[in-house]
Amino acid sequence: MEFLWRGGAGGDVIAAFPGAWNPPTRAHVAMAEAALAHAPEVVLVIARAMPHKTLEGPPFDRRVAWLRALCASRPGISAAVADSGLFLGIARELCAAAGAGRVLLVCGRDAAERIVNWDYGPEYPTIEDQLKEFELLVAPRCGPYEPPEALRTRVHRLELPPEWSNASSSGVRLLRELGQPWRHLVPPEIGEF
Question: How many CB atoms lie within 10 A of CB 126?
Fold first, then answer.
């Protein structure tokens, strides 16, 4: 893991917020700031390669610049590039790079459903075993996430203002394509790009 910006003091507990960041939204910022109630540092993470999608649209370097811009004015928020795109790999990289003993991974309901139901195959541990190495902080996206009973002690609700429940990067892209107002959904630092 390569840190791009350190805005937090680190510590034994650290939160990682992985994403494609195409573009970062005010909902992403709200989620990161809400995660600061659970950890003294939240790291916005972009992976060099993602397991479930390819990076289309803005180039990787622009996304990195967006993350740096977001962190510059937000105490406790850091940014990093991970080699792995899987939550388990990101958690392991973060433990090695920051020395954290407890890693919380921030995501929305859609991402939680995806990683819990993902077919990891024989080369990766089951999700139950992965959640022994990290925990999830899940924000409601179009409704709350209800984890399977076996995972409930490792999956926590991330409180998010209701106005951000439906905001998404794909929604911003669609509004922009349609020529409709979209800047109100992105942080001012991103709108400048």
Answer: 9
CATH number of 2-191: 3.40.50.620
Q: What are the tens digits of pLDDT across the range 84-134?
A: 989 999 999 999 998 888 999 999 999 999 999 998 889 899 999 999 999
What is the distance between the terminal CA atoms of the chain, rounded to a whole angstrom?
25
pLDDT given at position 178: 97
Cite the beta strand spans of the chain per DSSP E. 2-5, 13-18, 42-47, 77-82, 102-108, 135-139, 155-157
In 3D space, the residue among 8, 10, 20 whose CA is nearest the CA of residue 81 turns out to be 20
With CA atoms as reference, report the closest residue to 20 among 73, 70, 66.
66
135: alpha, beta or left? (left if phi > 0; alpha if psi -120 to 50): beta
CA distances from 177 to 80, 164, 171, 174, 180 (A): 29, 21, 10, 5, 8
